[in-house]
Amino acid sequence: MTSLASVQKSKVKNPALAEQGKLKIEWAESRMPVLMKLREEAKKTLPLKGMRIAGCLHVTKETGVLVRTLKAAGAEIAWSGCNPLSTQDDIAAALAEEVSMYAWHGMNKEEFYWAIERTLDFKPTLTLDDGADLIFTVHSKFPELAKYVLGGTEETTTGVHRLRAMAKDGALKYPVIAINDAETKWDFDNVYGTGQSSIDGIIRSTNVLLGGKVFVVAGFGHCGRGCAMRARGMGARVVVTEIKPTAALKAVLEGYEVMTMDEAAKVGDIFITATGMKDVLVDRHFRSMKDGAIVCNTGHYDCEINLGQLKELAESSREIRANNEEYSFKNGKKIFVLAQGRLVNLAAAEGHPSEVMDMSFANQFLGMVRLAKEGGSMKPIVYDIDPAQDQEIALVKLSAMGMRLDQLTSEQAKYSDDYSSGT
Ligand code: ADE
Predict the structure, then answer these.
(1) Would the N or C end of the chain have less CB density within 10 A of its end CB?
(2) What are the structural domains of the chain?
């Protein structure tokens, strides 16, 4: 077995930032009671002892809490970021003192895959993904490593979608647990996390007033729903674009205006893409946009806004402030692109708040523990998490928030299953 000690330990931008990073992780720990409870239990039972975990997930203070919890449970860990712009360098520096960390803000594509490959150097027994780049790298470039892997987890909607397609084609080589599909993940992280952090990213990179603005949300899935809800809360007039009739109908009944992107392009002040699909905003949309339009993306991949086409249309571009690129057209019109079309909530802000990541990462942790125990006998398909786990996580979260639940009486419990009692 290759041990971490025999491979290069870490590569981060500035190790001197470690103390600042540790303080931020400590702050996140104080907001993540579910994960901290799991950590306290795991310190006694060491359910991940002997496991080598390769992780590929945004390097944030919340991820710091997850990494420390996996380590406390006995695992050896090597980590890379899952997006070139989302790594927080102070957190990477802090974690580099505790595990193997290969991540820095502003990596290029080659460095990004170099970092992933370094985490594979120690032949992981478990993989932990957000966006599936690590699993894809194992399958496409190092298929011989799959035999060491008991299983993997996937954090995000797009990643789970692609892994299900892979499993359907029989191409998946080890079991994967779809963390995204846990109710305590998608119904909280995707909605409230994306909603708040995306608005945060827009504000940090522009400081524009949202009140009165026409705020166009492309895609009314869980992430789009969160963005629409929070933008409306700030006084914006929200327009939704959709391809799915039921999703569009939900948006209408929520009180949003629904139109095509061709129509929305002419009226929007701020655009955010949350679809998981490429080419949502293309040249004809940029041509119709108003002077001063602001464009950003909160989907996992940076293909939703076709920046190549915008670059061709524009005469010049310059960074006007951090995470805000101004594109000038011949006729004097300007369009502003935030965070280079990458996840605006992570690249221009700090990602989702700790309180929601608490539940997402509790699911990640329990997924790892299950795979360590059962992965060897699981099939190479995509598994959902046990719904009982959702209820347990929600219960711990609620009690940490000081809230209590009612309970059914035995009469009521009987009533719910009683098909003989009618009106
Ligand atoms: N994805 C979205 N927000 C995140 C955060 N704060 N940490 C890690 N991954 C995230």
Answers:
(1) C
(2) 4-187+352-400 (3.40.50.1480), 193-347 (3.40.50.720)
Residue to mutate (ligand 1; options 185, 346, 354; most atoms within 8 A of CB) = 346
Per-residue pLDDT in tens (0 to 9) along the chain, 423 residues: 444 444 458 999 999 999 999 999 999 999 999 999 999 999 999 999 999 999 999 999 999 999 999 999 999 999 999 999 999 999 999 999 999 999 999 999 999 999 999 999 989 999 999 999 999 999 999 999 999 999 999 999 999 999 999 999 999 999 999 999 999 999 999 999 999 999 999 999 999 999 999 999 999 999 999 999 999 999 999 999 999 999 999 999 999 999 999 999 999 999 999 999 999 999 999 999 999 999 999 999 899 999 999 999 999 999 999 999 999 999 999 999 999 999 999 999 999 999 999 999 999 999 999 999 999 999 999 999 999 999 999 999 999 999 999 999 999 999 988 888 777
Residues 100/4, Cβ–Cβ less than 8 Å: yes
In the beta sheet, which residues pair with residue 272? 217, 296
Instruction: For residue 352, report the distance from its CA to the centre of ligand 1, in Å.
Output: 5
CB-side exposure of 62: number of CA atoms within 13 Å? 25
CB 194 within 8 A of CB 298: yes
Q: How far is the CA of 29 from the centre of ligand 1 (A)?
A: 14
d(CA 397, CA 33): 7
Residue 322 Cα to ligand 1 midpoint, Å, equals 20
| Ligand 1 atom nearest to CA at 62 | 7
